[in-house]
Fold each of these.
Amino acid sequence: MTFQWFDLAFKVQGSVAPIILPRVLIFAGFALGISVFHYYEPQISLKVFGDMTNNVVFNLVLGLLLVFRTNTAYDRYWEGRKAWGTLVVNIRNLSRLMQIAIHSPPLEEQKDEEQKDKEKSIQLLTAFAIATKLHLRNEEISTHLNQILTEDEVLKLNNVKHVPLELTLWLSSYLQKQMQNDRFDTNYFVTMNSQINALVEGLTSCERILKTPLPIAYRIYLKRLILIYCFGLPFHLVIDIHWLTAIAVGLVSFILLGVEQIGNEIENPFGHDFNDLPIDEICEGISNNVNQVISYQSP
């Protein structure tokens, strides 16, 4: 466990250190310049320029903004995970009900065709999950759905503005048709329609997270406070620690910039970054669940 702790502490992949390193070096370089200036002009007092960094109100506001930034970003990350959890639960339940509740037609020659339609409609749930992932990442569906849908269906989806919503319409249309043909009970129809509504609700929650970023005023103000603090800190420290000022400023700026960057990393949890939600793995799990349901044979 001890070695695992140190391995994680020095892990580069997923860390914000490589991202903030150029900014840390800028602040440390500025601090080094202040140290050089103080070495050659020691009679000039620089402490007055650094008094701001020792101000209680300034430090309190900076700390509160950093906490607010991190908490807000994590709330968005967790809300995104809950939204995808809602999608997974309703896809599992809807696929299960569609497989069990929808009966085959009485005529033998229609059974194979109806069974294929049912399996294809259940596979639309996998297509919905993949399409939602691509929609949140603002990516084209391209060849991602070729194994699930026909070429004509993929082409049709390429011409609609909202692919996941279109797939829910296909699902609703299929269920409506089966109910009109008395393939299942009306109560099942109400339940399955509610679960499709829940899929749309989960999708809408993800869109709300994606399209409602932290107000720009908060981000600008926080960055300005960090700039003021990191550029003012060397004037306060150089009188006491001289040539160690650059190291101290580098460490402090690493802490402040790191906390801010963590908020930036998890603010949009639907991308490809290491700190984003594992949506690819979630979609793969959904695909496996749906295939298991389709392969189920009633005893």
Amino acid sequence: MSSPPAPSPKRHPRTVLDHRIETAAECSIETLWRHREAGLVDAPHSALADAHRDLVRAERDVTFHRARLARLVSGELPVDQALLARIERTVDQLAHTIDERDTEQAKAAAALEPIEAAAPPQAHQQVSTKDFAALLAIAQGAKLHENLITHRLAVATPSRTRISYAQLQRLQMSGLVDRDTSHPVHAGQPVTLTDAGRAVLAAPRPAGPPGTTPSPGPAASRAPAPLRR
């Protein structure tokens, strides 16, 4: 049986802790790994980088065995007792790698906590009304799909809120949402809120769009008429 390749800082599967780590470290995962290798970070950040690297390796093992299982049950191979035995072995291996991934995830979270605790509190990010509506829809469950004929990308949500791919990319760049790229896009990549995205929904909303104040109504914009005697 072949083994998954070793994790690379340039191409690694996303983990559930990536956004929290990048926020606490104030740099990308790739930068954190490079700084760790160059000895440019302190002990807590070094421990975090090492723990995250182990988590990535475990996440890649999960992806590897899940893809292997998907091939076995895809219908490409003849169905016989040998196939059933291979499926059983692969399921056992997948379960084992999931347990290892969960263990490494707990270790990485423990290494992250002291860095988050030492970080100064950040103000909640303000978003437009349209982006706020998109975050609400994504909170209910969303997937990015690719049409197999037109190859157009679209986000499907239970509320049928229209979310373009460009808007999804903008929300990702802002660190408000994340998508599971381990799933093929034609089958649907789950889109979820990050901690920052959930904080935006939980924060009080301003009366108007970010950076603006409510415009006065007609009565407030006119001076009172003088009294007639």
Amino acid sequence: MAIASDDGGVVLLRHRFDASEGAMGHPHQLRLGLAVAGGGRLQQRAQSGLLHAQWRPGQFNVVLPGDLGTYASPEVDLLGIAIDTHVYPHDLQPLRNLEALAARLHHDPVVTAVLQALWCSAQADACLPGFLEHGAQVLMHRLEQLAGNRHQASQACCVLSARRLQQLEDYIDAQLGQPLAVAHLATALQMEPSTFSRALRAATGLAPYAFLTRRRMQWARAQLAQGRNVTEVALACGYANPSKFSAAFRRVSGCSPSAWITQTHSPR
């Protein structure tokens, strides 16, 4: 389902896409896509470079105007927006500042909240004149902030390499169900906690606890898909309270454990 502003300069989209590949980009549209459900390995080859990462619910990608190339995408339920920079011309410098965002996936509560608010209002037929346009301006401003923050972070600290991220994930997997603090995660990589936290956020956009929770929910999704019950999986993940597990699962996956089970076992 797609909803456009009166002048067609902003298009809001919610749709479940099958796994696909093909050409990507638009000569003068800024595109942002938030994964709501589904996900998997995403690859984009464009003028801005190569993006090759695991696309998870809650993460979004950014495709800049004129950044043409090819993509290979997993099956994903997408909430997206396209902003036509010909209808709403912006100074070229802010768009150049966003180039760093096109090379990776992102997780940001502000972007998520704005997109969800726009979609909920559109579904309720409660969009006042200019509402989509204002939302687009807020998103552009936030993307500029994120690009600036990422540049400052890259200047201030190192970024964890793919090898060290894998090492961290292996450590978390080996300590399944055990309470882990930032100090434990940092020690696993032989780093100081403060340096580790900055380097992890620079690489993934996530704080240590959010990264830990996301990794454990990945394991939980796989176990639920294999038929294990919610309470059993919650206990295995270290949650004595299933309701807290369900809240963490929803925060990471965008739906409850029971809804995930239903989606997994529903016929295609």
